[in-house]
Amino acid sequence: MSAHLAAGRGHLAELRRALITFEPELPRVQAWGTELASRLTNGGRLLAAGNGGSAAHAQHLTAELVGRYQGERVPLSAIALHADTSSVTAIVNDYGPDAVFARQVAAHGRRGDVLVLFSTSGSSTNVVRAAATGREQGLTVWSVTGPAPNPLASGAHDTVAVAANHTPTVQEVHQVIVHLVCGYVDAALEAAATREREKQLT
Questions:
Q1: Per-residue pLDDT tens over the stretch 183-195
Q2: CA gyration radius for the chain?
Q3: What does the pLDDT read at residue 1?
Q4: CA 53 – CA 31 distance, rounded (Å)
Q5: How far apart are alpha carbons 181 and 69 in whole angstroms?
Q6: b/e string for 34-56 if b means 16 or more Cβ within 10 A?
Q7: pLDDT of 49 over the 90 cut
Q8: Does the global pTM surpass 0.90?
Q9: What DSSP string runs through the chain?
Q10: Partners of residue 142 on adjacent β-strands
Q11: What phi-psi label fits residue 158: left (phi over 0), alpha (psi between -120 and 50 degrees) or beta?
Q12: What is d(CA 170, CA 50) in angstroms, rounded to the nearest whole number?
């Protein structure tokens, strides 16, 4: 077996271990999806942020909610904070990189909204500060991180932490979490619609 092939198999083995370890977190992820479905259909908004690959996860989540995941449904309000490049560059220029998300949370966040922060390390200062601002503003703050404990997990109301030693593996499981949340949102909305239809028939 070549060294490259062995490395690839090792990568997959690490991912399998991480997914098996993550499986007990499914009820928490389901609860997040159910809560989001309720909040976002009753005037709430989702704000999401992260750096680098975590920014991609944040934007993937908001895109699936504003657009659709699998089935047709109403569009849901969700904003990826890194995606407004003019605001990002202005804030970094005027206030420094540590304020880039916190200032946007202060601007856009309202009591009852949800803030989801992605970080493989859980220690990036700009997301930790965003969590603190979110709590001050009355938002519900969730974090998706690598191994806990970490500062972001400590600053959030709830956390899904991926117990993996390698950043790529953590990021790969984070992508699974994004899709699971979206699937649970859709399931909760469909269940609510079914209950409404049944109520109208009685």
A1: 999 999 999 988 8
A2: 18
A3: 61
A4: 25
A5: 10
A6: bbbbebbbeebbbbbbbbebbbb
A7: yes
A8: yes
A9: --HHHHHHHHHHHHHHHHHHHHGGGHHHHHHHHHHHHHHHTTT--EEEE-STHHHHHHHHHHHHHHS-SSS------EEEGGG-HHHHHHHHHHH-GGGTTHHHHHHH--TT-EEEEEESSS--HHHHHHHHHHHHHT-EEEEEESSSS-HHHHHSSEEEE---SSHHHHHHHHHHHHHHHHHHHHHHHHHHHHHHHHHHH-
A10: 116, 158
A11: beta
A12: 14
90-99 pLDDT, tens digit per residue, is: 999 999 999 9
What confidence tier does 112 reach under pLDDT thresholds 50, 70, 90?
A: very high
Q: Which residue in this structure is represented by tokens 């007990």?
A: 24
| Cα separations in angstroms, 22 against 64, 153, 173, 175 | 22, 16, 8, 13
Check the CA dihedral 84-28-68-198 and report its sign. negative
CA neighbor of 87 nearest in space, from 108, 58, 66, 56? 108
- Which two structure tokens, joined as six digits, stand for 181? 């949340």
Mean pLDDT of the chain: 96
Provide the terminal-to-terminal Cα distance of the chain, rounded to the nearest Å: 66
Compute the residue count for the chain.
202
